[in-house]
Amino acid sequence: METSVSQTELLRTRFAQQGSYLTSSQVRAEGIDLKVIGRMIEAGEVEQVQRGVYRHTGADLPEHADLIELQLRVPYARLTLMTALDLHGLTTTRPTRIQVAIPTNRAMPDLTYPPVQVYWYPPEVYEAGTLSFGQPPLTFTTYSPEKTLADLLRMAGKIGRQPYREGLTNYLTRLERNISELLRMARIDRVEDELRRDLEVLTHDETR
User: Fold this and answer.
1) Is the pLDDT of residue 130 over 80?
2) In the chain, where do the E strands start and end?
3) pTM listed for this prediction
């Protein structure tokens, strides 16, 4: 059986390999008792940033640390709506709460931080248009710009049309815009007809 010292060294190695973060399930997968993590916390070497999520304090805090920690705590949460729009640089407004989508058959655990706004998506909406954001191993899941715009239009009755209109206007100025993909995402979200009308209006305004 490994000694506590060797287990601590193993955890230090794993923290370094995983970008300074480990979850309790990863610790247990190494055959290490969580008491070892507890001693590292007492020594100030590790901090618990979420329930079951630990960060080695010797490493610099990564960009988007709150989003990374949220993803580690709730692996099935996907950044959506205004949070996704902000990540893609399509808005000047940053939401006060992180907006996440989860499947309709899942519950969101209680979180003390960060502040989160939850939306329950049906399977076909939840699964479409996802992408990984960040640099491995510190990544989180969000939606593509096209899916984000479709979701904003789908949710406009609850959150208003302004975020969608701002995002769409900014998106159409980009060289890498993909209108066929945008329409495909809108079809999945059942807002294709409305999006087509908006595209016609915006395109007409540009050519006047």
Assistant:
1) yes
2) 21-23, 46-50, 53-56, 78-79, 98-103, 116-121, 130-135, 138-143
3) 0.90
